[in-house]
Amino acid sequence: KRNRAITARRLHLKSVMLQIAATELEKEKSVRETEKQNYLSEHCPPLHVPGSMAEVQELCKQLHAKIDAAEEEKYDMEIKLQKSTKELEDMNQKLFDLRGKFKRPPLRRVRMSADAMLKALLGSKHKVCMDLRANLKQVKKEDTEKERDLRDVGDWRKNIEEKSGMEGRKKMFETES
């Protein structure tokens, strides 16, 4: 029952939050619309179309002059932007060049035992001893027949000299059969 109540409360809170967010979005939308209307009324006066041809031509000339001024301003802004981006790229390149000039010191290999590492990581909580070699079993290596044969052969030159010539080949055939 308790889990159901918690889940129901969570769903109720979620729905309330969504409702509040929806109303906030509507308010923001209406505020943006009023700001847009205010800006347009301030910067774009209503257009009065005159009746005679000369007045229409004069109006077109005025509009073209305003368009040219706006284009010049836009061009100037673009040039300033390009100049500032170029300066930023140059500064970044200089920064990378400066970073590259200084050599970083080579890292030293530090020998630490497992106990020292655990002590450094865990601090005072470390109580277990990690002597890995103490837990290893002692294994005695037994001599295999191959290893004994290799030890008994001795110097390889003597072995080759024994097998050279007809006698050596004869011995080889005799030993194989």
TrEMBL record:
One of its GO terms (molecular function) is actin binding. One of its GO terms (cellular component) is troponin complex. One of its GO terms (biological process) is cardiac muscle contraction. Keywords: Acetylation, Actin-binding, Coiled coil, Muscle protein. InterPro entries: Troponin, Troponin_I, Troponin_sf. It comes from the Eukaryota. Residues 53-101 form a coiled coil. Pfam families: Troponin. Belongs to the troponin I family. Troponin I is the inhibitory subunit of troponin, the thin filament regulatory complex which confers calcium-sensitivity to striated muscle actomyosin ATPase activity. PANTHER family: TROPONIN I (PTHR13738), TROPONIN I, FAST SKELETAL MUSCLE (PTHR13738:SF15). Binds to actin and tropomyosin. This is Troponin I, cardiac muscle. The lineage of its organism: Eukaryota, Metazoa, Chordata, Craniata, Vertebrata.
